[in-house]
Amino acid sequence: MAEKQGVGRRQVLRGLGGAALAAPVLGRTGTAAALVTTPDAAGAPRPEQLHLQFGADAAHEMTVSWAAPERVARPVVRLGRPGHGLGTLVHAEERVYTEALTGERVFTYHAELPRLASGSSYTYRVEHRGAEPLAGAFRTAPRGRSRGFRFTSFGDQAIPAKVGQGLGPATPNAGYIVDAVDRLDPLFHLLNGDLCYANVSDAPVETWRSFFANNQRSASRRPWMPCAGNHESEVGNGPHGYLAYQTRFALPGNGTRDFLGNWYAFTVGAIRVISLNNDDVCLQDGAFSAYRRDHIAGYDAKGYDPYIRGYSDGAQKAWLERTLRAAAHDPDIDWIIVCMHQVAMSSAHFNGADLGIRREWLPLFDRYGVDLVLAGHEHHFERTFPVKGVLPGSTLLTPAPQATDAAVIDTTKGAVHMIIGGGGHSAATPWSAFDAPNDGVVITDVGPGDPRHQRASKTATEPAPWSAYRDLKKPYGFASFDYEPHAPGGNTEITVTHYGADLGSPNYEELDRFVLRKPRHH
Fold first, then answer.
1. 216 in helix, strand or coil?
2. Is the Cβ–Cβ distance between 464 and 440 less than 8 Å?
3. Domain Calcineurin-like phosphoesterase, which positions (predicted)?
4. Per-residue model confidence as pLDDT tens for the chain (522 residues)
5. Cβ pair 494, 484 in contact under 8 A
6. Using CA atoms, how far apart are residues 478 and 8, in angstroms rounded to an integer?
7. CA 324 – CA 274 distance, rounded (Å)
8. What's the rounded Cα separation, in Å, for the pair 153 and 376?
9. Could you say which DSSP state residue 211 is in?
10. Whose CA is closest to 151, among 505, 503, 495, 381?
11. Could you give the CA distance from residue 200 to residue 207 in angstroms, rounded to a whole number?
């Protein structure tokens, strides 16, 4: 764990005409990143990589985050309502980490904005001493079932242009998809892991910088809420490789210190969103990086190992069960949505689904009535029928479909799983990877390996009666979700639309639409 150089503070400042608002105690995000509260004298680089995150209560909490190429003095956020000035001043805290591969120090800043009004618009500006400010705006979530909203999701984005030696993936679609999402004006966006692939790049800091700069035009105006995928684990950056991720994002707490941000939950409307880190339970050796192995000084001597299965020693699973149990019994929650990276089902001969997820997560999803699971990892679009339990006699724990209507789905019968892995990666799942009729592909074990040699996946195929739809037309895409709290007949609905595009095309067209429906939780 990196040295903690400072502690959080809470301070209330009132600007002219502005209401009092408490500055954050970002000690709550005391990750392995160092927290610094006394920056050096101003160097005046402009703020960059601006992005937002909800707190645990999306109606009342928001965090503004950004970065600078060097330490800055007096980082603050000025906040206000449209037309009423920026009367509230909130001090930000600094987090720092040193990239193990290059030795670069990374400086990020986070200002937590609590006690906001629900369903309201705000404007803000981030500033350092002596620097040109950077402005943004956002909306808080509506409270409870007061009104509906839209959100969007994809995974496996990468960056729009290569950096460094060009070792990491990059396509123009990683940029085009941001504009396609933005045109739909969602309240928030879910990133289903493998954000920018910094762990396979020779220039990881610049890769992260490109990722945030690319998304800033949207992420400065709505939260982009991530889950950590296998490519967010950068061996050498902290005990499990997540130090860059934990430094750059300030996410809702999970009751731990070292794992903060790796899993978390937030409530938006009558939806409980749960973000998981599947590398904790996956069999696949997915975080291995030959480049980092060969170029990090002292890789062997320091005992680095990118295979981190079981790293939380059961802490994440225990938290997940507590969180699911609370959501299932909360009369104000109608929907439970899980955002994760690796998948429980896939009909592609690509990575494959992971038996570890089926063993550890799916029984909990069944027990507590998860409605929707959003994932990436496989670089295509696919969705399932509602699944619950396993097919009789299945040694692979093949999920059992509980209905076969692919157009209108009652999620009280089981959870619908979606693969939305076409965010922009340059290695889309090839069409030749799909069997007809559909076969499921499952990682059942891994071969021998060690910190210097990646463990090869062992896979098996299975019948795939759970597969409701897969897109074999467009390799890149995202999904939108229109939540309606008050549908006819005492129901609540989410209308899901999948949009896809060809490589190099900015035109994302509607390819699939279906409805999730269930009774409201009275």
1. helix
2. yes
3. 180-380
4. 333 333 232 222 222 223 323 333 323 233 334 444 444 444 579 999 999 999 999 999 999 999 999 999 999 999 999 999 999 999 999 999 999 999 999 999 999 998 999 999 999 999 999 999 999 999 999 999 999 999 999 999 999 999 999 999 999 999 999 999 999 999 999 999 999 999 999 999 999 999 999 999 999 999 999 999 999 999 999 999 999 999 999 999 999 999 999 999 999 999 999 999 999 999 999 999 999 999 999 999 999 999 999 999 999 999 999 999 999 999 999 999 999 999 999 999 999 999 999 999 999 999 999 999 999 999 999 999 999 999 999 999 999 999 999 999 999 999 999 999 999 999 999 888 888 777 899 999 999 999 999 999 999 999 999 999 999 999 999 999 999 999 999 999 999 999 999 999 999 999 999 999 999 986
5. yes
6. 38
7. 9
8. 10
9. H
10. 495
11. 10
For residue 160, the Cα-to-chain-centroid distance in whole angstroms is 19
As a whole number of angstroms, the distance between CA 101 and CA 9 comes to 32
Looking at this protein, which amino acid is placed at residue 197?
Answer: Y
What does pTM read for this prediction?
0.92
Q: Which residues contact 35 (CB under 8 A, 6 or more apart)?
A: 4, 5, 6, 7, 8, 26, 27, 93, 94, 95
486: left (phi over 0), alpha (psi -120 to 50) or beta: beta
Sign of the four-CA dihedral 338, 456, 466, 387: negative
Closest CA to 504 of 480, 478, 471, 474: 474
Residue with tokens 């429906």: 517
Please name the residues in contact with 316: beta carbons below 8 A apart, sequence gap of 6 or more: 259, 262, 263, 276, 277, 280, 281
322 CB burial (10 A radius; 0-12, 13-18, 19+): exposed
Fill in the amino acid letter for 508: Y
AA identity, residue 418? M
Closest among 401, 388, 380, 375 to 471, alpha carbons compared: 380
Nearest C-alpha neighbor of 286 from the set 199, 347, 213, 224: 199
Alpha carbon distance, N-terminus to C-terminus of the chain: 45
- Residue 250 φ/ψ, nearest 5 degrees: -120, 95
* Residue 325 φ/ψ, nearest 5 degrees: -60, -45
- For every residue of 492-514, DSSP letters joined together read EEEEEEEEEE-TT----EEEEEE
Backbone angles phi, psi at 203, to 5 degrees: -130, 70
HSE-CB at 244 with a 13 A cutoff on CA atoms is 32
Q: How far apart are CA 482 and CA 152, in angstroms?
A: 9
Domains delineated in the chain: 12-519 (3.60.21.10)
- The position carrying tokens 């090839």 is 430
Say which residues have a Cβ less than 8 Å from residue 419's Cβ, sequence separation at least 6. 343, 346, 375, 376, 377, 378, 380, 381, 382, 383
